[in-house]
């Protein structure tokens, strides 16, 4: 099997350069990847309906003989239509195909096939338009449906998969050792692969799926463990003194009890244990995680080490940089910013400052983990909004020092089983208290007809010295009809409603420097209104903003809406969140109304999970885990099973690098090299 990952799909007969390119679009370049391109759905071709029994429109599988040669009729504009009639012992059905010149070659007169598709009726009888079909000799089966792309349909993929399976060696090396398979009732890899593509029965399919899902989660599980293994090592970073009291003096506010506890937890980890700190600080948006991180950085730096603070977006990094710089003014701590969009010369300067130790605290994006960045003596790595980073990225940052301490911060509450995998043996501090004088954001849901009223309200807020965000889902004009695009929206706003008020626009397609300029302008209260896409979703902090208007609210998930709403209500003024939607069905309305009824992030995440189902919970791969081919992060039962199996494997073989686990290791490498799961806006 491993060698098939080195065999290009073009090695299959019938796959030329053009086909190969189409496969590439589906993320498939090798035969191995094609074999792992599991069907997205299945059709049940095992239940055949006699033609005479079909009296209602619907989707059916019939087993019938082609009763006439396929006729081709040209239509205007080079289009054409193929027709034939098929029969079984009970009746006949007309088949119609459009623009497929191969049909007449594929369907042989007098031969028997399974036909699967929708049957409709007209005055002449029943017909099937463009049914899928396969020779009857294949026997009743469950038919795979593959995710397709332009020019590459499911049937073609199916053919290629069939050829790929023929390339499998007689005995396929199995990453799961036999003893483990026996103990947990898992079938062998070869059978699993064959049955996941071409199962004979639903039971076969389920058995195959169970095996593959379990294997993938075991691979994930063990991979995460090895990434984390550093956590049990001794840290080269010795912290002797707690400087958090001194740091508190620098703050313009009193820390909340919860913040103090989180800081104390961290300092305790570093002071009292020989191993490195490995801590997650979880707190709802606005709970003040930044101050906690800053305090811990301060203590580490005062003990003679460097600290690195990694943020998921340039905007956020720049903002943290400014905050930290102001805060640490006069303390002698040197602060640097390192992001991809800096001028080369600036990057060079910061990098050399990190290498020689003259920069003690660096705030940055992924630029921090590139090979070019070296530290003199990194003592602490902080990742902000952890769910946006891959675990591999986190590990990379840690590798820049001699087992530095790790602090990860996240606003996203996650289900327990998944948390165990993502964070493993991380210790957790929860900030369960908001800074004082926060008034809960008042949230309303309005139809588009209420927009005028809200604009008037925004004007009033602006005249009181406040600012407003307006969020639209997309960037470019006309991307989706009826969906406001930031550019277009802002233009209209400036022209029609707020010609006298400075409006800024920010979205992911701007150059980072342009983005920063606009964000800065908003933070400095030069722009009163900021029209934005979800680039502002994470972390941005402008306490003076009091209105968050969200257009097409139906397009956002609850957790995302909560993140967006978290951009307001950060000061002591009453803040408002207005969701506008004109495309609401019952379910959407119910979902959005949850937002109006609570400000509690944990409750909202819970509802989100319940309503949307776990698949969508994290939005697009925002959990920092590798992309899975078949398993589902929300499949609690399989997650638990995989945990058990991973334990058993470690118990039996002790060392992940032992020879019996060679194939399993190869799978781990492959899963994690799919990497790159960060969503930079
Ligand atoms: P988050 O947890 O979402 O990252 P931030 O760290 O950005 O939250 O803090 C949100 C806002 O609250 C910031 O403007 C910050 O200065 C302010 N803040 C943080 N802690 C306190 C506190 N103890 N008292 C008052 N304001 C605070
Ligand atoms: Mg934050």
TrEMBL record:
PROSITE patterns noted in UniProt: HELICASE_ATP_BIND_1 (PS51192), HELICASE_CTER (PS51194)
Uppermost EC category: isomerase
Domain Helicase C-terminal as annotated: residue spans: 450-610
Keyword Hydrolase: yes
Keywords: ATP-binding, DNA damage, DNA recombination, DNA repair, DNA-binding, Helicase, Hydrolase, Isomerase, Nucleotide-binding
MF annotations from Gene Ontology: 3'-5' DNA helicase activity; ATP binding; DNA binding; hydrolase activity
Domain Helicase ATP-binding, chain residue ranges per copy: 270-431
Entries under InterPro entries matching the protein: ATP-dep_DNA_helicase_RecG, DEAD/DEAH_box_helicase_dom, Helicase_ATP-bd, Helicase_C-like, NA-bd_OB-fold, P-loop_NTPase, RecG/Mfd, RecG_dom3_C
SMART domains: DEXDc, HELICc
EC number: 5.6.2.4
SUPFAM superfamilies: Nucleic acid-binding proteins (SSF50249), P-loop containing nucleoside triphosphate hydrolases (SSF52540)
One biological process term in Gene Ontology: DNA repair
Signal peptide from the UniProt entry: none
Reaction(s) catalysed by this chain's protein: Couples ATP hydrolysis with the unwinding of duplex DNA by translocating in the 3'-5' direction; ATP + H2O = ADP + phosphate + H(+)
PANTHER family: ATP-DEPENDENT DNA HELICASE HOMOLOG RECG, CHLOROPLASTIC (PTHR47964:SF1)
Role of this protein: Plays a critical role in recombination and DNA repair. Helps process Holliday junction intermediates to mature products by catalyzing branch migration. Has replication fork regression activity, unwinds stalled or blocked replication forks to make a HJ that can be resolved. Has a DNA unwinding activity characteristic of a DNA helicase with 3'-5' polarity.
Family per similarity comment: Belongs to the helicase family. RecG subfamily.
Protein known as: ATP-dependent DNA helicase RecG
